[in-house]
Amino acid sequence: MLLAGAAPARTAPPVAPAAQPEFGGQCALGLAEGHSIATDCSISWTAKDGKRYCFSSEQARKQFLEDPQGNIQRALDFSAAGAVQATGERMDAYKTEDVESFVSHAIAETAAHNNGVFPLVDPVTGTTLRLIYEKIDFTRTLHGYGFFPDVIFHAQEDPGKRYLVDFWVKPGADKLEIVDTRIRKAPRREGTAWTLQTRQPIPWWWIPASEHPGKTEQTRGWEVMSAVEESVVQRRDPKNGTMKLKDPVTGEALELDFVGTHQPVRRLEQDGRYFACTDFRKAGTTDQFYDIDFWVNEHGGKLTVDEIRLHKVPVKQEDGTWVQKPRYNFDDLKFGVVP
Question: Domain-by-domain residue ranges, the chain?
Fold first, then answer.
């Protein structure tokens, strides 16, 4: 309580938190020279864009500042090139049995909270499937990119109606994490029986011929697709799994379910950017589909989505059906196919 005539207490202005250090606090000069050196970030430098770089010593900071832009780029190149290597090294700590046990447990835990069924939204139809887990058929491994268990389920209402669902699993800092799930094969009625039909487009992880694809000088199409789908996962709403996107023409806030990325990936001859075409379904509908273009560029050796554009949008016809109408075309651009 304030006494009569007393001035209210003055509080100190809030102190802005220090910017999170780049490269996880590793020595920026060390990375520029091809080494990973941990620091406590007591010695740092903040660039004009607000990014903060840490150093292992005053001498390292002084040497870095002799060519800051060049050293930043070299550090980015080394850090990005090491991302796949780092994932590969983390993967080496796990056996296939560990991954399959982890996925089986995750499925069982989800089913336990859903009366014994594993619910999964079918991105093509928009319906929620009620699945019963049978077994993991096998696990594909792409060193540096993750594990991909192929899981057999059947529909709760019909044991003969089977699905093959891929789980994309990556090792985090100290545990395995499920990145995404995709229906690889879905049931199709033929006479009185069900057969399995491969969904199109196929997931990118089925494209590489080798499970240890290695690094090449030329970026491959599936690597671009991987970057696109990583971006989709990062942009999803954690509550309902949809990706939000504003329609720049109508102003509508779209909620979209991801269906897949198409081949081939193309590269713009003009500036070297990559272009990948994807399909999304408007959440809450069964027949409104968007064709969305993801533009990908290489920054510091890492493929990054720079731009997302609505290429084709659903338009309702007089008969009540929905068709896709292009917003733009590529008549004036020259592309090369990325193998």
Answer: 22-91, 96-205, 218-338
